[in-house]
Design a protein that fits this description.
There is one protein chain. This protein is α/β, with parallel strands linked by helices. The chain has 2 domains: 83 residues, Rossmann fold; 122 residues, Rossmann fold. The protein is built from 10 helices and 10 strands. It is 41% helix and 16% strand. The chain binds NADP nicotinamide-adenine-dinucleotide phosphate.
């Protein structure tokens, strides 16, 4: 059965739009971009469109790649202090000459809608979640929407990034799963994937997961986004696994739309805190 992230994200966005309609002052998301990365331009446009649709104001601050770091710092401080801004997001990647770690950590923890500051990552680690990274949050919501049991299950996460793999492992732990995290140094990946009740691949390699690597009835969540000849693929050989899996996300239409919905939801969550 398909885990339809598009349908669930539409439902969540509809609910958010209804809420936002009732607010006198609209919530506001500010996105900071440094440089002109082509993929970033597309993602930012998509975020702007999604905000527009549900009535969230959108500020796009775009700096040239040769901007002085202090100017970026000043802007983050200004947005932190602006009571009308409920979410601040530093669009990644940024050019390597900037200190990404330092810039991310300047964002106020309650406006950090990507959940990437040390404070929010630490709170997640301790189980006192504040704002949680959008993709992992979207995945948990998608599993819950389909009443997929997480507690007691063996969840195998492939990928250990701060953006997806690690926070997802924390959320799965919080929900009672036994979690295995695999990565590029894992020896014999198949040995682990074969054991998974819930298998989540967040790597970025087309056809990394083939049908001989999964067991019958597995729940498969494919986070990967791989563009080949203009077409989008996940990490999972969807066609050959869909009949073995009990549930599986399509790419596109699975995790991607959930990520955007969770971003909007994090903005509204912070807005409501200040009502
Ligand atoms: P990332 O930072 O590049 O992390 C990739 C992870 O995969 C790393 O932990 C890496 O291990 C591991 N890896 C690489 N090759 C491997 C292999 N052969 N076997 C097992 N593990 C391997 O990427 P990310 O930001 O987490 O994103 C992962 C994928 O998800 C990308 O395709 C990205 O585009 C996609 N994504 C999608 C969404 C969405 O909304 N759909 C959101 C975010 C990301 P090491 O740590 O050892 O290097």
């Amino acid at each position: 059965m398909l885990l339809d992230g598009k349908a669930l994200s539409d439902k969540i966005k509809e609910e958010l739009a209804k809420k936002v309609k009732g607010y006198l002052v609209k919530p506001c998301l500010a996105v900071i971009q440094i440089g002109n990365d082509e993929a970033s331009n597309i993602y930012i446009k998509a975020k702007e469109k999604a905000c527009d649709k549900i009535g969230i104001n959108f500020i796009h601050v775009k700096f040239e790649s040769d901007v002085n770091e202090q100017e970026v710092i000043n802007k983050i401080v200004e947005l932190n202090n602006d009571n009308y801004v409920n979410g601040i997001l530093l669009q990644l990647p940024i050019p390597p000459k900037f200190n990404q770690y330092k810039l991310l950590n300047l964002i106020n923890k309650n406006k950090d809608v990507d959940g990437l500051t040390d404070i929010n990552a630490g709170l997640l680690f301790k189980g006192n979640n504040n704002l949680v990274p959008c993709t992992p949050l979207g995945i948990i919501n998608l599993l819950k929407e389909y009443n997929i049991e997480i507690s007691g299950k063996h969840a195998v996460v492939i990928g250990r990034s701060n953006l997806v793999g690690k926070p997802l492992a924390m959320l799965l732990l919080q929900n009672g799963a036994t979690v295995t995290i695999c990565h590029s140094k894992t020896v014999n990946l198949k040995e682990f994937t074969k054991q998974a009740d819930i298998l989540i691949s967040a790597v970025g390699k087309k056809d990394l997961i083939t049908k001989d690597m999964v067991k019958e009835g597995v729940v498969v969540v494919d986070v990967g986004m791989n563009r080949v000849d203009g077409k989008l693929y996940g990490d999972v050989d969807f066609e050959n696994i869909k009949d073995i899996a009990s549930y599986i996300t399509p790419v596109p239409g699975g995790v991607g739309p959930m990520t955007v919905a969770m971003l909007l939801s994090n903005v509204v969550k912070n807005y409501e805190k200040n009502l």
